[in-house]
Amino acid sequence: MDLPYMINLTVELIIGFFALLIITKILGKTQINQITPFDFISSLVLGELVGNAIYDKDINAFYILYAVSLWALLLYIIEILTQKFKGTRSFFEGQPSILIRNGQIDFNELKKEKLDINELQGLLRSKDIFSIREIQYAILETNGSISVLKKSKYDNPTNEDLNLPEKPIYLPVTVILDGEILWDNVQACGFNEKWIKKQLHANKISKIKEVFYAEWKKDEGLHIIQKKGS
């Protein structure tokens, strides 16, 4: 047994372990099912860098720290870009896709996301839904998970059980994000700039930049979250 090599390997493993742990904390990565495809690939590459550095006798602890730090810096730059420039988010993080809209499967979206009906059913079963007829909306999130909004009569407790009439289900639409108006969404809701200004005035908000997030829901109206300190 090569004792110096074993000692060196032990030191490098400890350094690599804590370096990855610190970088993970700094970058805010949580559960594996919450990361985007870009984050997942980044984690694989980062693990490969550390693994190769640890088991290569010609590479010392300095190279491990350098590799981890450089990769972390690149990830941090990407995080800053996606926060500061919203146009980069769809490229690096992807966009949610509505697979079921108003109870109807959007086969074009399924094809776009490279999903077949069996895979869709598997995703739904992970949400304890065994029949597509129960669903009003199903959205494939950027991390590969699925979010589901059930039809009212299948919700818990069901309106059918309570002998209540079935009510229409409306999907919330984001109209303001990070102080900017999403005009495509506003127009899709049938509104215009005059309506936006009227809504802000009613909520005693003078500037769009003061709004962190605002969504429109047909049966509940506009919900606004202001930026802290605005």
Instruction: Give the N-to-C terminal Cα separation.
Output: 65 Å
Mean pLDDT: 80
Count of distinct strands: 8
Question: Count of helical segments?
Answer: 8
Question: Could you tell me the radius of gyration in angstroms?
Answer: 24 Å
> What's the shape?
extended
Oligomeric composition of the shown chains: single chain
The main sheet orders its strands as 2-1-3-4
Q: What's the story with the biggest beta sheet?
A: 4 strands, antiparallel
Q: Runs with pLDDT <50, length 5+?
A: 29-33
**Beta strand %:** 15-25%
Task: Give the SSE string.
Answer: HHHHEEHHEEEEHHEE
> Helix content range of the residues, please?
40-55%
Strand-pairing-aware structural class: alpha+beta
- Count of all domains: 3
Q: How would you sum up this structure in a few lines?
A:
The N and C termini lie far apart (65 Å). 45% of the residues lie in helices and 17% in strands. The protein contains eight helices and eight strands.
What this model shows, in words?
With 230 residues, the protein is an alpha+beta fold. The protein folds into three domains: 3-91; 95-154, bsu07140 like domains (CRO Repressor), CATH 3.30.240.20; 173-226, bsu07140 like domains (CRO Repressor, 2-Layer Sandwich), CATH 3.30.240.20. Helices cover 45% and strands 17% of the residues. It contains eight helices and eight strands. It has helices at residues 3-27, 37-55, 61-84, 89-93, 107-112, 117-125, 183-188, 193-202, and strands at residues 97-101, 104-105, 135-140, 146-150, 173-177, 180-181, 211-217, 221-226. A four-stranded antiparallel β-sheet has the order 2-1-3-4. A four-stranded antiparallel β-sheet has the order 6-5-7-8. Helix 1 (3-27) packs antiparallel against helix 2 (37-55). The longest helix has 25 residues, at 3-27. The protein is extended and about 75 Å long. Mean pLDDT is 80; it is low at 29-33.
